[in-house]
Amino acid sequence: MKKISLSILTLLSIFTFTLPFAAAEEYFHTRTLSGHRIAVSAVAFKDDSTLVSVGTDSALRFWNLDMGAQHWQTEVGLFLISDIAISSHDSRFVVYAGGLFFRPYIGMSYTDDGDIRGYLVGPTNTVNTLSFKPGSFILASGSNDDTIRIWDLTWDAWKSRPVRTLRGHANDVESVAWSPDGTLLASGSRDRTVRLWNPDNGTNTAIFRGHTNTVNSVAWSPDGTLFASASNDDTIRIWDPTNTDAPLHVLEGHTGNVNTLAFHPTEAILASGSSDDTIRLWDSTTGLHKATLKGHTGGVNTIAWNSDGSLLASGSNDDTIRLWEPLAAVDITGDGSVTYLDIIEVGENYGKTVVNGANPRADVNKDGIVNIEDLIVVAKAVDSQAPVDSQAAPMLAQHPHDFSFTAKDVQQWIQDAQDVGANPQTIAILERFLAVGTRMAQPTPEKTVLLANYPNPFNPETWIPYQLAQPAEVAVFIHTANGALVRTLPLGEMPSGIYQSRARAAYWDGKNAHGEPVASGVYFYTLKAGQFTATRKMLIQK
Q: Are strands 138-143 and 127-132 parallel, antiparallel or unpaired?
């Protein structure tokens, strides 16, 4: 089969979607980690290549993100694990907590082998939340016994007991978080309040009110000048820690409980996860909504950024972990924009493994092979950038370029995408790519022509083929025999080419503008393409 030969400049002038990375507000789902048997309750980065997760399946799992696979797991018995914490002082040290039937549990492991190193004794009910003081082995835990406990794990912590218990909340403590300098501890509770504590002496220094339901999560900005709280009242509140009067911003938009929060480590971005199955990104300075990340099919329980904010992990009630990356991760060519050239680069490497010479950037999900999963991610990124902006096309010298893949290969990509359940928009992007590639591989028609519809007679649908000698704004008008307009089919700006197959010709479903089937009889169809106009006759026979 003949290889697709495209004019790069022409392709880009039709299909260039450009978004400078400095202004990028979107993150794209690039990988899915599957293995948990039930809901994922917490995720945390050990380092930029290792993710730790826990779930209500009582399993502690470690994932190698360079390979996109689970490294190992540890079963912790019959306890439901609700949270994990990793010490920034020693990232090998992992603490996890939960409980079952009022039996609390806090266990400790080293990530070298995952073996349990000990457990902590003190809480009298399920432990919901954990947080290490930055740069130390000082741990805070919050429990359904309405208390917060402070633990010093710098010594042999086997069956260690707390050094301090903080009391004041009137209901379950759902979340705790240390300020970046370690001088304050924030907590959120089922009692609808957020509290700040002096962890050194246990004093409750401030109470923040305003939420009308359980506070599920609290988080600090990297510079410690702000903290945020998330609630079952579907809102997020951003607070000045020195002012308890009112929040700086109330963020609304989620349509379900807001379960988790995480500040970007270097930018003014706050991420939130909700029972509405979405993640939202917010400007933490202004409170404005920046983006919504969709893909989970269950509530989002936990989110975490890696150290430089280039990767966001989310865990869900759909039993999966999803990894999200910024636009730069799907800019395969590295030219500063996401265009059909990136699809082309994935196509050039399709089916190849990285170890056998595939472009590593084309292996978006880092599973070692360039396949339909990578192509779908890039196609979605192209689809998400709008509108088509031909003025943004790079001023490349026009020259033909022969690609190693054929039209048949692109048809196989489309079939692969359909087989894995890709959404219709992604399929449409690939079909459009195939159509343009096929057109560019053919000579440009010498003149614009309206061709005979097929089938004819027809009932109830027909295709109206045509060819364009040059790009034009195209529309087809359907009239009755006495000239009454029945239907207008606006096709938009179309490039020169042959539009004859069912995938490319204009389509009429035999209905009028109100969606009603038209009667049998003779009809006329008119093609208007720029200054060109032509009319032909067709017959509906029922």
A: antiparallel
Provide CATH 2.60.40.4070 ranges for the chain: 449-540
What is the rounded CA–CA span in Å between residue 298 and residue 315? Answer: 9
- Is residue 297 within 8 A of residue 322, CB to CB? The reply is no
How far is the C-alpha of 49 from the C-alpha of 63, rounded, in Å?
8
What fold characterizes domain 449-540? Immunoglobulin-like (2.60.40)
pLDDT tens for residues 370-399?
988 888 888 877 766 543 333 223 322 333
For the chain, give the number of residues: 542
pLDDT score for 230? 98
3-state secondary structure of 10: helix
- CA neighbours within 13 Å on the CB side: how many for 248? 17
Q: What would the two tokens of residue 174 be?
A: 């759902």
Please write the tens of the pLDDT for every residue from 302-357: 999 999 999 999 999 999 999 999 877 888 887 777 777 788 888 888 889 988 88
Non-local (6+) Cβ contacts of 323 within 8 A are 29, 30, 31, 32, 33, 65, 311, 312, 313
Q: Name the pTM for this structure.
A: 0.71
| Pick from 509, 499, 506: nearest CA to 458 | 509
- Cis-peptide into 394, omega within 30 deg: no
Longest CA pairwise span in the chain (Å): 94
Q: CA–CA separation, 188 vs 235, rounded Å?
A: 14
Query: Mean pLDDT of all residues in the chain?
Result: 84
Query: What per-residue confidence (pLDDT) applies to 19?
Result: 37
Neighbours of 332 (CB within 10 A): 27
Count of CB atoms within 10 A of residue 509's CB? 12
Residue 86 has pLDDT above 60, yes or no: yes
The span from the CA of 321 to the CA of 34, in Å, is: 7
The two three-digit tokens of residue 477, written as one number: 């008008």
C-alpha dihedral sign at 324, 328, 334, 338: positive
User: Which of 270-279, 287-296, 381-390 has maximum average pLDDT?
Assistant: 270-279
Burial class (CB in 10 A: 0-12, 13-18, 19+), 298: middle
| pLDDT higher than threshold 90 for residue 418 | no
Residues 6+ apart with CB under 8 A from 53: 33, 36, 40, 42, 43, 44, 60, 61, 63, 84, 315, 321
Cα dihedral 491, 492, 496, 498 in deg (nearest 10): -10
Instruction: State the CB neighbour count (10 A cutoff) for residue 179.
Output: 20
Write the CA distances from 327 to 23, 82, 458, integer angstroms. 10, 32, 47
